[in-house]
Specification:
- This protein has 2 domains: 62 residues, OB fold (Dihydrolipoamide Acetyltransferase, E2P); 170 residues, no CATH class.
- 28% of the residues lie in helices and 25% in strands.
- It has 7 helices and 12 strands.
- A hairpin with a 2-residue loop joins strand 1 and strand 2.
- Helix 1 crosses helix 3.
- It is globular.
- The model has no long low-confidence stretch (mean pLDDT 90).
């Protein structure tokens, strides 16, 4: 059974003026001509036998509709874990409108699509009573994405200069860390491992314990990490005792910055 936002390796089985018939995981599908890169660029037109990566846009159509556009693939990766999180942990009713171009220019990176969707849906705030999602433009610098990126870079540089070991992942090329989350009380920080040539949707999540030098690495998106914490399926050592720390009713509750900070 095909699922919306899921990616598949598809094979072109027929080509028509209006689009392309494909086969994916023993299911037939269709890519409208505007959903193939050749419609928008100099990419060669599809031919029978071509193999490509495509994402399901609408599994309810007959045949199901796919897209092979990189932008749709990126969006789907952002939706894959934000949608179940929204169902499990309802947003406050209004998220944030962010000028992402300015934020990304300030950081010098393109942010993952799933993070942008989280902020647009929820805004910054607290998941599961302890995991704080940083947001750009937060009135409190402690929970502001851009401010914390600069502050954590300075703090980590001082720690490493003093002799604390860097995580092994940072010894490869020009990798850097950008914080996106903070664990209230414990002081842990959650970072993206930003590596040259690695797409934002494939960045690893690194957790640095708040009162020590230990690190954990998870090859998942920030939205999946949050979803795993909320559902209790995370393998992180630092969230294994969440039921002993957080009230059961807070486990699937999101509290926005505006309510916590009174701003």
């Amino acid at each position: 059974m095909l699922v919306d936002h899921q990616e598949y390796d598809v094979v072109v089985t027929a080509v028509a003026p209006v689009g392309i018939a494909v086969r994916a995981d023993r299911h037939d599908g269709f890519i409208d001509q505007t959903k193939h890169p050749s419609w928008w660029s100099d990419t060669p037109r599809a031919a029978v036998g071509d193999r490509m990566r495509a994402v399901v846009l609408d599994a309810t159509r007959t045949p199901p509709r796919f897209s092979a556009l990189p932008s749709d693939l990126q969006t789907a990766r952002g939706l894959r874990h934000t949608e179940p999180l929204v169902r499990l942990c309802p947003p406050p009713g209004s998220g944030r409108t962010v000028k992402w171009a300015a934020v990304q220019e300030a950081l010098g990176i393109v942010l993952p699509a799933d993070y942008k969707r989280l902020v647009q849906t929820y805004g910054g705030g607290l998941f599961a009573g302890m995991l704080w999602l940083l947001e750009p433009g937060c009135p409190d610098a402690m929970y502001d994405l851009v401010a914390q990126t600069a502050e954590r870079e300075e703090i980590l540089a001082e720690l490493w200069e003093a002799g604390e070991d860097k995580p092994a992942e940072l010894h490869e090329g020009n990798a850097r860390l950008v914080p996106w989350g903070y664990v209230e009380g414990a002081g842990h920080f959650l970072y993206w491992l930003v590596q040259p040539g690695v797409e934002p949707e494939k960045w690893t999540v690194l957790l640095n314990e708040g009162r020590g030098p230990l690190w954990e690495a998870y090859p998942v998106s920030c939205s999946q990490f949050i979803l795993d914490v909320v559902t209790g399926t995370t393998t992180s050592f630092y969230f294994t005792a969440l039921d002993d720390i957080v009230d059961p009713e807070d486990r699937t509750r999101f509290t926005p910055n505006s309510q916590i900070l009174g701003q």
